[in-house]
Betaine--homocysteine S-methyltransferase 1-like
Amino acid sequence: MIHSIVWLKHECTVQTVEGRRNWGILERLNAGEVVIGDGGFVIALEKRGYVKAGPWTPEATVTHPEAVRQLHREFLRAGANVMQTFTFYSSDDKLENRGQSLKYTGAQINEAACDLAKEVASEGDALVAGGVCQTPSYLSCKSETEVKAIFKKQMEVYIKKNVDFLIAEYFEHVEEAEWAVQVLKTGGKPVAASMCIGPEGDMHGVSPAECAVRLVKAGAQIIGVNCHFDPMTCVQAVKMMKAGVEKAGLKAHYMVQPLAYHTPDCNCQGFIDLPEFPFALEPRILTRWDMHKYAREAYKVGIRFIGGCCGFEPYHIRAVAEELAPERGIMPPGSEKHGMWGSALEMHTKPWVRARSRREYWENVMPASGRPKCPSLSTPECWGVTKGHADLLQHKEATSTQEMKHVLEMQKKAKSSA
Amino acid sequence: MIHSIVWLKHECTVQTVEGRRNWGILERLNAGEVVIGDGGFVIALEKRGYVKAGPWTPEATVTHPEAVRQLHREFLRAGANVMQTFTFYSSDDKLENRGQSLKYTGAQINEAACDLAKEVASEGDALVAGGVCQTPSYLSCKSETEVKAIFKKQMEVYIKKNVDFLIAEYFEHVEEAEWAVQVLKTGGKPVAASMCIGPEGDMHGVSPAECAVRLVKAGAQIIGVNCHFDPMTCVQAVKMMKAGVEKAGLKAHYMVQPLAYHTPDCNCQGFIDLPEFPFALEPRILTRWDMHKYAREAYKVGIRFIGGCCGFEPYHIRAVAEELAPERGIMPPGSEKHGMWGSALEMHTKPWVRARSRREYWENVMPASGRPKCPSLSTPECWGVTKGHADLLQHKEATSTQEMKHVLEMQKKAKSSA
Amino acid sequence: MIHSIVWLKHECTVQTVEGRRNWGILERLNAGEVVIGDGGFVIALEKRGYVKAGPWTPEATVTHPEAVRQLHREFLRAGANVMQTFTFYSSDDKLENRGQSLKYTGAQINEAACDLAKEVASEGDALVAGGVCQTPSYLSCKSETEVKAIFKKQMEVYIKKNVDFLIAEYFEHVEEAEWAVQVLKTGGKPVAASMCIGPEGDMHGVSPAECAVRLVKAGAQIIGVNCHFDPMTCVQAVKMMKAGVEKAGLKAHYMVQPLAYHTPDCNCQGFIDLPEFPFALEPRILTRWDMHKYAREAYKVGIRFIGGCCGFEPYHIRAVAEELAPERGIMPPGSEKHGMWGSALEMHTKPWVRARSRREYWENVMPASGRPKCPSLSTPECWGVTKGHADLLQHKEATSTQEMKHVLEMQKKAKSSA
Amino acid sequence: MIHSIVWLKHECTVQTVEGRRNWGILERLNAGEVVIGDGGFVIALEKRGYVKAGPWTPEATVTHPEAVRQLHREFLRAGANVMQTFTFYSSDDKLENRGQSLKYTGAQINEAACDLAKEVASEGDALVAGGVCQTPSYLSCKSETEVKAIFKKQMEVYIKKNVDFLIAEYFEHVEEAEWAVQVLKTGGKPVAASMCIGPEGDMHGVSPAECAVRLVKAGAQIIGVNCHFDPMTCVQAVKMMKAGVEKAGLKAHYMVQPLAYHTPDCNCQGFIDLPEFPFALEPRILTRWDMHKYAREAYKVGIRFIGGCCGFEPYHIRAVAEELAPERGIMPPGSEKHGMWGSALEMHTKPWVRARSRREYWENVMPASGRPKCPSLSTPECWGVTKGHADLLQHKEATSTQEMKHVLEMQKKAKSSA
């Protein structure tokens, strides 16, 4: 059934592709197209051995470009229409935070990231987006001027490299996100803004609706959320943003790039607060079938820029692209190696596995954890520490023994009151 | 503590490396070295978009060599001392089973695989192993002569490409494994034999101890198990094999390359029988901390060739290498991007995450599934269909509608009697 | 420690008991006393063999008075200060609903219930409360006059038997609860009103705060919730009621009598909607230690009439009484057979069980379900059928085959859309 | 369907009842009848407030006879054909163990127990069984003579009160069970012997098969297991006993009286070792539907004396009796208040509950725990302390502070090695 749809639409799609060869992100969204985002780089490359959990910085663009290029290609093959430069946390204040000493500047890392993203994007139907995200400087209560200077420095690389559009993403505080948007707007490219918040709003309690309105007023043409929560929670938060924007009589496009982890037990801080973060999240990883449900729900809500963040592997993005194949009129390249809804299991040698080669089977499977001594939900930490608190001030020096002693005491205290 | 050990041993290790530059697998094992295997290619590359679940064949060596090369590199970086050629299920009878039509012969795929493995192995301290595995022909009751011819054809490529040693792996029936070993022995290289069985033994009920004795008698110098069961179960099965070999007054080296999935609910057929196979296994994925326990246990039991199979990502292999760093006197290259036992979390911006930068925290975490509506164990399917049964006969033609109807009825029947 | 408190307060308590021998419910609450309610009769007696699940009617007061008397005694012994007459669902329209034919009238059953409650109350420090609850007539859209006549008929028995106070409980709709309170007020006894709602409010969406205000305005002196939700959820709902009453500048006493089942997965209809209701709720039963937490929380919120409903066994009530022993200055009689916080385990023959004879152990135990193939949460049914819908109309005749066929179709449909 | 069977058989059943009015336990079993046992007294009466967890002794027969009588009646009503005297742990050495000081002797308690059991048995079709169980004296390494004297003292009460037969139950060591049987045999009544062991055998590692043979050789006519494990595990153990007896060419009848708790995670010591014992076992309680499966399985295995132990409430016994109604030709009296397989839910007011009034629904329900932060399996304690170890020696004095300190250290040590 899907196949015929794809085929029928394919001819006109090919024409469309020709016709829109130079379309940017806004042209695509304005035309009602579904734009598939890419997945998460830091977590995927941490597992592959190229990113250090803790600082989470992207120096691999310089040190191991082949690994970054390969991941870009896999997401492209999975159907992604956006190659985000691998520049997460790549501001100079973050790169040298808490004792991390790298041989490369933010500018070097970001230039290399642009080159890689552009190289791969040119191999398919994808745009390149340069990104900035929240800074230790904001967390450390630096001034608006100081923080904006950091964003400007990063943006200048993206403009020089002529990316297709800009994304301010992974912001916990709407104020800092506004600052970022205001800076990015000066670049003359389309600007998207994405916060890492859930339905409870930002870390200062600003609701998703109000965050959305403020971001649109700051100049963002595309708004949404990324990271920190599971797909359904993120879609819910974007839905609230959309309602806020519409209620305010404003207009925007919407994006969502959630975690690929189930996080029903999170509080407003998201998966950072879960005791499993970041090294024991495995049991929470979404299946491809969960992704079908996510893509469908995001589409229903009116979101048209649909991608992923931490935890999203290429096959997760492919599942999003396969679910929306009827709407998009095209299957992702990577589906040549994937039977829709498990249909290629018909080629398995074992008869009981062949019997699983169908949608009804996979839509209804309730996957066991294989860990009977573990719970299904955790109690998130909730230290009540927000921006301004001494424990959130950052510094260049390594975390001191004194600081470590202090946080261990805090941890013990938090646990006993849970 | 670990650091000092590594450092102290490092000098002599470097010397050793020089001294044993040409050591093969047997020299290493005879000298008491720990040899780290690589992880699983089919599952990892399926998620990356290059292997089709169902046939599970490795034509990517020809079609997407950069993807295969990159995965080899990641395992090498994670500490692997063996690069297995990506030649799983790459016998001609399997490549064209049930309607799969590929443009490449087994020989073409296997040659490309050897080239990739050798290229990457030369970048570090690794050996290349060429492998054969069970065949549809055996399952379809073909003769010993016919089955052996298939193994011979594959082996000839490995000999031509001059790999370091040979592995007969993923055998459910000891009889077929013996045939494979007998053929591989003619190649003049060291031979390892690894069955995909658990403590209950092979599909005909032959115990691990007896399987072990028969494999050693057939000529295998290294024996063990791979795939189908979780690490602790596989270690247990190898322990039983070792006891059998010792009781018989024989000698062997031991290897283990288990799943990276928790499978406490499996029966003798392993994870194939779990309802989550192959598309909903995510919640069962082991954490890196689980891998520390596995590596330690395997070492204690006396196994010295320790690697992984389906589900093992590079960070899993790195965890094995890190756990055994004191014994090996060396840390894997990839650990430059990994704080031992989470120590790099000291560089995290959030104080409660910095508090997790220690071994005691991660050793005791009980990871939640985030899926409260799912169970922790499943009921494996148990059709009672073994070699010789009509439903296990294979053929070149695609699975027919009639066959599909039949297996769906079988599935329904099996479920109602569960 | 607890013991000394109890002892110290005991003397004055005895005096107080003398002094307040004739105190009613309001005198006790006005004086700030904690009043312990009893537990659930229908579920406990169903398990003992005297109540039929389905109709859930209390004819056992006539047919098996010794069983009802014994349960009263157990709750008295556990510390209950209120003996509720076992008159649940004992209105004539309910007693003959859907084909149930009993030999006894509502009046006969209720008179017997009063006699039993009074007999046992006189054996200790307890008051007798006569109760009415929601009616099939209201659900079937009968008029206010008709419904009020039903309450009046029941009340007349309680007045004749001279109970100490009246309770209108287990109402899903605040309108019907108001009618009940208005009728009960004519009896000249103190009136309590308790709805079976959670934080989402009644079945028509009236919030707990508004329900509370309306009940107080109707004349209830004590208000709260009972049944349908677990203790913490019920306490939360009463907290919302209290906030509503205080915001409206009104005054009331508060009561809570929750389920003894964990129900985090309920929607507004409560445990009725859970697929486990009523015959597979076992895994959800609260431990005595859960009850300690409940009692403490209810007390903190300002609730002073604290009891239980379905699922509460005598030992649950005893745990409530033990937790509040310091405040009440007295331990329940039944504690002679219970070591506070497990202390009597010191007398166990096994040393590892003796090691469990302490509060810290039991406060932190995380009890396993022993059911690894079952989930931890369910999906409640949600048919969207409310008062006025044809499927909720009741009748004297037995449920017809046609009706059963219809509900099975509804069930199938609901499941597929879950 | 069941109803017609019951009705058809009823006439002949009545005749049979007349004809066998004086049949004892052996006549019934010899005739192939199914004998339903009663449920657990200590746990049920602990929850009702009459037994102290820790010593677990039955002085309630003297102090609260009405509570004991009521529970007997409930089990009789549920279908039990055996009233076991409530004399568990009622040997003088146990009654005064570890500082417990009671006003009553074992003889007084046991005489009262006999009177109560006989009174209720006479109200229906039930036999009275007097019981002895393991002693602190055996655990404390007293001599065979001393231990046998304890059994003799208890038996003399039963003979004086003329019970119908004798049961030696709840023995962890077959040696002590043999001693008990040898003593009981001198009473001239039929003797049953039941050990609290699972498939791993007794605490000294004696297999179920060997235990069985030794008990039969000691003179027991009925053998089996009770307590310590869940129904399916106990049935499995009895199956092994039966195989042992048959292999030895001996003959016996078989009995099983398991826990009403799911215990898949137990080791050989049974539920005593679970961290939830005895105050957090609630989530493990079996549903009535679990009991149907148990009764059917026990019957299939050839067990004909089928009852329950700790955790069995009257409704559990009723479920056993209902499942075996076709074989027995009679429904239990208590079923007048129970719709077979939930059929009485047809009288419920809510349509979605009426839809649950059928066997298929309840047979397939997978009950959620409602505790998402708890695991599904626990790690049993395993101190490795067996008879002879100083920690298992008992004494009259209360457990000393020194002893408590010691066991807490042991507990901590055991936990860290788990």
The beta strands of chain B are 35-36, 82-84, 127-132, 165-171, 191-195, 222-226, 253-257, 305-306. Chain B touches chain C at residues 265, 372-379 (CB under 8 Å).
